[in-house]
Amino acid sequence: MVYFPKLTEPYQRRISDEEWDAHGPSAFRKLAFSTLEMAIITGLLIRVFRAFLLTNAGNDRPALLAAGFLTGAVFLFVMVTLHLGNFPLRHWVWRAPLFAFLVAATELAVSAGLIALGREPLGTGRAAFADWPGMAADVVMLRLAATSAYALALAVIVQWTRTHSLRRAQRL
Fold first, then answer.
1. pLDDT tens string 137-158
2. How far is CA 40 from the centre of its chain?
3. Domain range annotation of the chain
4. Contact 61/77 with Cβ under 8 angstroms?
5. What burial letters (b/e) apply to 104-140, b meaning 16+ CB within 10 Å?
6. Residue among 96, 137, 116, 106 at smallest CA distance from 42
7. Regions of the chain short of the pLDDT cut 50
8. How far apart are CA 82 and CA 156, in angstroms?
9. pTM over 0.90
10. Which partner from 44, 123, 130, 152 sits 20 to 30 angstroms from 169, CA to CA?
11. Which helix (H) or strand (E) holds 126?
């Protein structure tokens, strides 16, 4: 059963236009509001980190490789959280998949650049432009699935926490 509190005004303080104009959001907060900018930064850093990791760790150090991929996943989820946290849950339905597609598009653009430079790793060798369509499908599906699943789990946790907090606040 979903709980809808009747008195939520103490939790929904609105910032007036005068307050917003006087102080304004910080530069980082402005960045976190932009889906495009957050996705570009995320995709660029993930792809460059992946290329660096696969080039230097290789198959001879699987623990380092696993730690590197875990770090990349945590970075993706942190960036998704920083972005989605600025919006109501009902906007997450379209913002999370859009973020995933933009991250994937940025990764693929960086990947094409790395292939042109001969620096994109694929397995034990270097990727060629003939490998790019297959890589593109994998990246888009992986980013979309991971980001959507994470956003869904985060939304459930956020909604449960809000509901639980409001119930407790009204009992006190």
1. 999 999 999 999 999 999 999 9
2. 10
3. 27-171
4. no
5. bbbbbebbbebbeeeebbeeeeebeeebbeebbeebb
6. 106
7. 1, 3-4
8. 17
9. no
10. 152
11. strand 125-126
